[in-house]
Amino acid sequence: xNAHATPxxxxxxxxxxxxxxxxxxxxxxxxxxxxxxxxxxxxxxHRAVWSVFVAGLVLLLAxxxxxxxxxxxxxxxxxxxxxxxxxxxxxxxxxxxxxxxxATLEASLGxxxxxLLNMAAGAVLFREKIDRWSALAIGLAAIGxxxxxxxxxxVPIIGLTLAVTFCAYAVIRKRVPASAQTGLFVECLVxxxxxxxxxxxxxxxxxxxxxxxxxxxxxALVNGPATVIPLxxxxxxxxxxxxxxxxxxxxxxxxxxxxxxxxxGEPLTLLRIVSxxxxxxGAGVFALAAFNRSRAAREALxxxxxxx
Length: 308
Description:
308 residues; mainly alpha; 12 helices; 81% helix; globular; disordered N terminus
């Protein structure tokens, strides 16, 4: 736990809630852009291009330009961030595709199981211990995925790929010696040429919706802050909150994504509801176990701090 992390830090809790609320409502932005005529590839390209400027501004306000220069001058760190950029780019691509092609429910599935997959990856890669409650959470989620497969008639590739790519992204970022803001800025720099070239191609062929009208440009520009602001809020709040609190709040995003999918008319069959019940149960067990571990750690710390 960070030295600044206290359960009573109301500002940090509010910031975390704002972060996950923005992430949870992000499908509405992509759906609105699709209704305006944007295709998923163009949305992604604008996201890659305009995020650089907002990420650069955040870096400037945080006074971390020096760190960014050091990272850019370190080939090994730069290579790892290039790989993480490709992973997050893949994640973004699939997420934008899902939310603009009536697959938001399946996308929410991926973000429900992502923390459970992170836990499994921690056990395999970092030898972190999985207790019986964590194992139960993973088991419940696995049952949910199996039922979801039966409900859809195929493996939920979108949800699983979103979970795997974000988990792999988190593993790499855990190992890379760069702050959240610096890492994001460098990742945006890596993705910038891809987005810029694609937008240039669309423009020369008269297919760039974002440059066809003032309203189109406004929709395009919104992608910058919509991408960077939640990440900046997360970086600030995560340093000031116990893991258990973050564990509870993080499920707000897929819950809102799920609500967006239902509200926009995506099919929700009984079997699919049952699959999500298992996913929600796994998420609940995960959050409760994280809370209990954090409380036990605080009690142990209090005991050791008391004079004999």
